[in-house]
């Protein structure tokens, strides 16, 4: 399909100076598939450390931004500040922020626009709860989350979509290859209908949720799975095997 494979490591609120340096050293010294784009997202406190410590070619992402450029917003970080610090990506709309911190679709969309306007790449997360899946609402929920962004953002060339079913995150319960492929395909069809042919063809759609070195190869074979957003396993040496899943 010609889409470059993409693997993101979302460290979430994990790590210390010591352990993060160890994870980054492991990546720096590993033989990584040169056709795979690799981005790591440590907690914001460690973003600069990661940028300074990681070898060239490996990129750093924030786990969140605020949608204003600067000002009286205690505790927040802007896209411009990230750019200024050599951080080129941000994750947005992660379900942990949507659920625990009650971020709604509009806020996620507004942050996505702010990030893209500042020239950051965005890993835009979407995904349904178990309850929504069991009610047959998976595609409806995911496309509603994406539609809020499409209403504000026309150019998706720096957006990577991450489909992360909430019931698969941190649970060890990975979606089956069929379940993942079905939703990825639906997202691609939605992109074609609501954004553009080009967005449908070129946008990478990642799968996230209990991805490990054991299940990544099968998932990577699916036509519409263009990479992974990895939580727990990105903190371990086996993250390298996930990065190389598409070899
Ligand atoms: O939320 C995730 C990545 O953003 C997935 O987390 P796990 O890989 O730990 O299930």
Key traits:
binds 1,3-dihydroxyacetonephosphate; TIM_sf; isomerase; 39% helix; 16% strand; 247 residues; TIM Barrel; eight-stranded parallel β-barrel; alpha/beta
What is shown here, in short?
The protein has 247 residues and is α/β, with parallel strands linked by helices. The chain has eleven helices and eight strands. It has an eight-stranded parallel barrel with strand order 1-2-3-4-5-6-7-8, surrounded by four helices.
Write the layout of secondary structure elements.
Layout: E1 5-10, H1 17-29, E2 36-41, H2 47-53, E3 59-62, H3 79-84, E4 89-92, H4 95-100, H5 105-117, E5 121-126, H6 130-134, H7 138-150, E6 159-163, H8 177-194, H9 197-202, E7 205-208, H10 216-220, E8 227-230, H11 239-243
Parallel strand pairs: 1-2, 1-8, 2-3, 3-4, 4-5, 5-6, 6-7, 7-8
The chain binds 1,3-dihydroxyacetonephosphate (13P).
Catalytic activity: D-glyceraldehyde 3-phosphate = dihydroxyacetone phosphate
Pathway: Carbohydrate degradation; glycolysis; D-glyceraldehyde 3-phosphate from glycerone phosphate: step 1/1; Carbohydrate biosynthesis; gluconeogenesis
Subunit structure: Homodimer.
